[in-house]
Amino acid sequence: MISDIKKAIDLLNTGDVIAFPTETVYGLGADASNEQAVQKIFTTKKRPGFNPLIVHLLDLSWADTIAYVPQEALPLVNNYWPGPLTIVVPLKEGAPIAPSVTAGLSTIGLRVPRHPLCRELLKGYGKPIAAPSANASNTLSCTTAAHVRRSLGQGIYVLEDPASCECGLESTIIDFSTSIPTLLRYGALSLEAIQDYIPSIKLSTTVEKIKSPGQLKHHYAPTLPIRLNAEYPLEKEAFLNFGAPHPKETLNLSREGNLEKAGSNLFKMLHVLDDPNQFYAIAIAPIPNSGIGKAINDRLIRAATPKSLEESS
Ligand code: AMP
Ligand code: MG
Asked: Domain 2-203, what fold?
């Protein structure tokens, strides 16, 4: 494992991109200060240049060197970092951050991950790593190294964790650069948990300018069509069930009806069911819209939205 981390660090030092596990999903990382390296993230993922990247840090002290973290963010950050929480805050002028990381915005998205291998990587590298999810743009996020290779090809070095990602859903993103903190993306940290610290948090409803690709209507999509709130499968449909077993279920996100477990299984099971040789479509059972269920439903609605309804190409 130590040799794998060393290889990953060598690649980052030479301006390459690497994939690495986090507790949310796999990330596709590059040195956040190296513009050419960061450009490789965009070309590898075919990601539009207007979508900024999350910068991964070892701890809060790293954040202070590149951004202004407002006082009101501290109770939340102190409680949930390291963890699946991203904050969007004003970028410091002259900070060593490549311009395309922030897509030219004056704000930056920051996260301190808790996955042990990811933390070893950050500690060994000693500098911020910019990393969106390690998957081709708009397609399913990856929670195993095998998914990453299937999505991005064999050419990317993957720092591998034999277990799949613990949360399995992307981080929750909160914008602290606005007068009232705003939720930009539902994620692995529930809204209820955040409201304990920020009761006044606003839910973003409109997209004036894309602040978060999670706000694009079509996103996180498998190749097969998705049918939501299904009670049973139609002919040739895979059936992704939740809760009490059904005789026709192909897979079950959680037979006990546990939403955390369903979240960690979501992308993993969609990767398995997204098989045009076996199925015409994927039917998915209703998921309760509370706790992590909000993030699951958010991903499913976007996955089910036809590409033609996307706001921007
Ligand atoms: P991904 O991991 O592919 O979902 O992408 C990283 C997420 O962080 C995207 O949803 C970005 O838009 C979001 N993000 C990063 N920086 C910013 C920022 N300055 N403002 C708003 N969202 C951001
Ligand atoms: Mg993504």
From this structure: DHBP synthase (3.90.870)
